[in-house]
Write a structure and sequence with these properties.
single chain; alpha/beta; 8-stranded mixed β-sheet; binds iron/sulfur cluster
């Protein structure tokens, strides 16, 4: 299976206190006013990668404690995203985080079941947070403990 990916790198900021392999999806249909990642709106600006290519980069980063999906909008390529989550669970075993411009309530349960950490909601320029995390104050941070999500 293939999907459009903008970049993959090690991050120290996307899950507080954790080293993360950050996988940026390319393409976003949400198009928030004031978005800082406009170059990722068109998925074709990214690279078409196979699941195996993405997994290889994740596996080759032994220091990372988490895998995070960001963008762009990861859920715009839902089938590829779910497939990667399944493979990470089976072959990597690290917890998965996601940043989405969509609200928690509209995300499919099948996807939520794979995730441990989630930042949800569109960027609102009028609610911009100076410290930059989350990017705007309407965005909600969810953490899963056992099988329960806490906001
Ligand atoms: S969801 Fe994220 S990438 Fe998409 S427009 Fe909003 S801020 Fe930009």
């Amino acid at each position: 299976m293939k999907g459009y990916i903008a970049r993959i790198f090690t991050s120290f900021v996307d899950v507080p206190g954790r080293i993360v392999t950050a996988v940026y999806f390319s393409g976003c249909s949400i198009r928030c006013k004031g978005c800082h990642n406009k170059e990722m709106w068109d998925k074709k600006n990214g690279t078409l990668m196979t699941d195996e290519q993405v997994l290889e980069k994740i596996k080759n980063n032994p220091l990372s404690e988490y895998v995070a999906f960001l963008g762009g909008e990861p859920t715009d390529q839902l089938k590829f995203l779910l497939h990667l989550c399944k493979k990470i669970k089976e072959e990597v075993g690290k917890p998965i985080a996601m940043y989405s411009g969509r609200e928690f309530e509209v995300l499919p349960k099948e996807l939520l079941d794979y995730l441990s950490f989630l930042v949800c909601g569109p960027y609102r320029q009028d609610l911009h947070v100076e410290s930059g995390w989350p990017a705007s104050s309407n965005q909600r941070v969810f953490k899963k403990k056992d099988t329960q999500w806490n906001c």
